[in-house]
Amino acid sequence: MLTSPTSEALAAFLDEQLRLGGALLQVVGECEVLYSGRAASVAEAGDYLVLVKPDGSVQVQGPRGVKPVNWQPQTDSIAVGLEEGVAVLTAERFTPAELVRVAFDHPALALAIELDENGNFVLMGSEAEMQRALARNPEVIEPGLQLLEMELPTDVGGIDLLARDAAGRLVVVELKRSKATHEAVHQLSRYVESVRAVVGDCEVRGVLAAPAVTAPALNRLGALGLEFREVTALPDLDEAPQQPGLFG
Amino acid sequence: MLTSPTSEALAAFLDEQLRLGGALLQVVGECEVLYSGRAASVAEAGDYLVLVKPDGSVQVQGPRGVKPVNWQPQTDSIAVGLEEGVAVLTAERFTPAELVRVAFDHPALALAIELDENGNFVLMGSEAEMQRALARNPEVIEPGLQLLEMELPTDVGGIDLLARDAAGRLVVVELKRSKATHEAVHQLSRYVESVRAVVGDCEVRGVLAAPAVTAPALNRLGALGLEFREVTALPDLDEAPQQPGLFG
DNA sequence: ACATGAATATTGGAT
DNA sequence: ATCCAATTTTCATGT
User: Stated in angstroms, how far is B28 CA from D5 C1'?
Assistant: First the structure.
């Protein structure tokens, strides 16, 4: 870590860290940023926070908003140099061709941080979690619904939930955690066909359960005689009692 | 700035800085992040860089990519507290209702940075700019073209440029700053139809003006009797003469 | 490599 | 507060 480094010290520090790799680099201070590629932009001299990640992605964060002022998703080439006494970072990408140049006019702080990548698994409110929640309480999908199977294997994949409705019909339920697309409809359709082929004597319904559905998917559902059910089965974290061990 | 602070020290530090406002806050270390709102996600314990900006926006950056692992664009309420010996940041937004909670299990570093907002002017090459440039000089699109309207509203949306060609025909121009897709063709097609419906007695051409076009889009254009015109209205910063005082 | 589609898209402006 | 449109969208996926 360096505080108020000279341009030479900053350039040497960044150069060494870039060669080493593996660290998240950070420079705070007054800089000018230039982007040229899919569009073109120039950020005049101002205070910014510049982040350079181990994968070569660069982002220049200003004082407001989540979106960086300038950025580069991933870079094929990244280098630092001295130009007329100023440390300059150049990050380039080839496809599409674009370039970000950051000139550190008055660096106030430079940091190299090791971010352990181990165990950084992000679990989105997962489909599995949603499946368990709905399995515990199938009536959320439809009153009178009784669960028969979870993750039932078929020749075309696994059925999320298989249930029986109040009228005794089989119900194939396909779950999506986020907005359901025509892919989900296609999947559900195949499952329903597969089940119908096995139990020809029983009426079989298909239900797509998701928090939302795209318009084309809804159209296709209707055309195939399938149904959509809006479910938001994710645990309501605002109102749910705190889990011991998680956040305290 | 704090290094390896205790949870109590971290909570006190963040609380004070949040009350003061104006600073960009940063915490590096092992934490758990929970998001609930438009979707739901949990990031398991791992090393992250957490940024809290003066406008209340929160982002949790992992070791890769420009996009944060978890984030919140702006917050109506932000607070820090101690829960069972762990400093916890809670950032809430009301519309849409969403919540981010960050539990700092093992903080390694906490920083408060002053980012001066003065003079952070950013010049972009945007579609609006491209539109103005072409409006000033329509001959770039086609010799003899005369501008009639900009952003002309129709029942199916706004026409970027409406012009008259050398032969007196109306020309509907659809602009795209980047590679035009079939979406742009569809849009142009609707505009042309809309204009033809209004002025049945005058021939109407449709021109898609963009720096590039996808192959399917070009095919569709041809099938619909529309035209493509390559324009590169963005300022080319690579070839432009260097400004003295800017990057050397 | 390219095209296509989804996303907690974000953001700014108009209504 | 909603809706609409632009964005260097980014990112993942299929071809």
Answer: 37
